[in-house]
């Protein structure tokens, strides 16, 4: 395609399998085609077609908010891509591609391509989370472009407007509710246990499922991972921006830039934008608008946008590979290269509504204030947490500048209502003792290695691997090395030969001259 996610990270910058869809052949099978004698059933119009596979689709009715029938129900839609071989499946793998707010069903063919070997004898379960895709989308009047590119004041106002428009139904959009929906689908299908495969936000959702339904989990793969006890001030990402710049500069042949110089240029650029923001005209399908490019927008560009698609086409220019040159030119008085990157990123904004992203992150994620506190107290608690950040904890940025560059952390949810909304998701729930594989791209500042290691540490029986020269998420790389490792793990409980994870080629980097 390229498929731009409508919600990042934990803000999935680009849906891994959505991007892969750009290189896939078009399916020719019908969604209800029988395979190995299994009876075909009438499929709903939205049921996807996957070449060589029978795909079964359906819906389950679920309460929007448990215990409050007056708020109604939601139809949760699912698709099962059936295995190719005769006989019963050896297992069923449930995949979530991230967001919050990413859809799964429309990516069926891309997932099947990435997990082709596993689908010989395993079924693939795709569930569109409530409020997304085929599971009754819910609008709250906040668009992707408005939310991602607005000033911090406007982002906070958008969160409050979203909550007001959703009203008491906002309480229905949580990771716990989505996890229970997945289990309801599992029960409908008569599957005893699921193997869980979470990408980006899916690495948060799947441990929530595992904590709520531990007896139903066979194994888990988490890719582009962050822990349930994520840092509300986003320090791991801030620090990873600098290490990522160093790595891309070191690995090119010939070396294209000096990593330490690039980090110093970043710090200088952040300080200048903090003192004097830059105005950049951006052209979209809805006209031209002036983007105010501040330290926080630089932070977002560096850790979120620059982490996406890294490794998909390593020999072609990427945002991350162009940044050292752009920072060098900015420091030396030439703003044009950085302006161009800002313009290109601004053009990705869409009109897709952000209700699922805002509601889940504001309901679930750990905060630097008490959910039950009134607004004035929340602000005092948050300001105290920010003031307590030690020098250097946010890398080349100020603490305020970096946290305001996040769309799911910092103070963005500080106006989310305390009435009629659930408390944050527990950060240390009981988790099953099952095999767990955690993967991180070592050029990913969005969910960096440090976060992946903490995600792995939540489980007793886990293995962590850093995938060289890939970003968020490492499955983006086209050789299927990463999906091959994860497929072996899901089949056997062991990753097997992982040498390819360290042998992926470095990305192209624009040379810095002089």
Q: What would your notes on this structure say?
A:
With 514 residues, this protein is an alpha/beta fold. The protein has a domain at 55-138 and 172-230 and 424-502: 3-Layer(aba) Sandwich (Rossmann fold), CATH 3.40.50. It is built from 16 helices and 10 strands. It has helices spanning 16-20, 108-114, 144-149, 152-166, 175-189, 202-212, 235-251, 259-275, 295-303, 319-331, 336-346, 355-364, 375-387, 399-403, 449-456, 481-492, and strands at residues 55-63, 73-81, 91-96, 122-127, 194-199, 217-223, 278-284, 287-293, 436-441, 462-467. The protein has an 8-stranded mixed sheet with strand order 1-2-4-3-5-6-9-10, sandwiched between helices. Strands 7-8 form a two-stranded antiparallel sheet. Helix 2 (108-114) links the parallel strand 3 and strand 4 (122-127). The chain is globular and about 65 Å long. The model is unreliable at 1-39 (pLDDT under 50). InterPro entries: AB_hydrolase_1 (IPR000073), AB_hydrolase_fold (IPR029058), AB_hydrolase_sf (IPR050266), Pept_S33_TAP-like_C (IPR013595). GO terms for molecular function: catalytic activity.
